[in-house]
Amino acid sequence: MNVLIRATAFAANKHRNQRRKDADASPYINHPIALADVLANEGDVADEAVLVAAILHDTIEDTETSMEELVALFGHAVAEIVAEVTDDKTLPKAERKRRQIEHAPAISRNAQLVKLADKICNLRDIAACPPANWTGERKREYFEWAKAVVDGLRGVHPVLEAAFDSAYAAKPSASSLA
């Protein structure tokens, strides 16, 4: 079976009871699929390990998936990329966000691609269908934080960086705070 399809089925099962924070509570699996789509179809990324890691990028962080399970099912290369983009949920949110900014320049190129696609997709989602309870100020804060993370990734993929910059341009203005 194609490993990308197998990873999508695996992620869909792991995220099956999760929803996004938008008003429609969209199925969570839409998010990892969007990352793979951005990488493949906007960034022309063909590296299978990167695309599979994009599909699986939140499994360790947000589901009952272990690193060992990913290694056994998808190999070391994919599991390592996922590990590099996984936040330590035992830390406070502010510390996790600080660490993402700090570590972005030091992660592998493949992990940087996944991280960049994640930020692109998140900004697009916040602009198009924001979390139901987020104020304009919280949206703006997220945009600024995402930019700080992506600034540490500059040079990894100019086309995807331009896509990020375009998504960032949709940042809520001070007059739109609600």
Automatic annotation (TrEMBL):
PROSITE patterns attached to this UniProt entry: HD
Reported cofactor(s): Mn(2+)
Pfam families per the UniProt record, alphabetical: HD_4 (PF13328)
CDD domains attached to this UniProt entry: HDc
Keyword field: Hydrolase, Manganese, Metal-binding
Domain HD: 28-123
Example of a GO MF term: guanosine-3',5'-bis(diphosphate) 3'-diphosphatase activity
Entry keyword Hydrolase: yes
The protein's name in its UniProt record: Metal dependent phosphohydrolase
The species this protein was found in: Paraburkholderia phymatum (strain DSM 17167 / CIP 108236 / LMG 21445 / STM815)
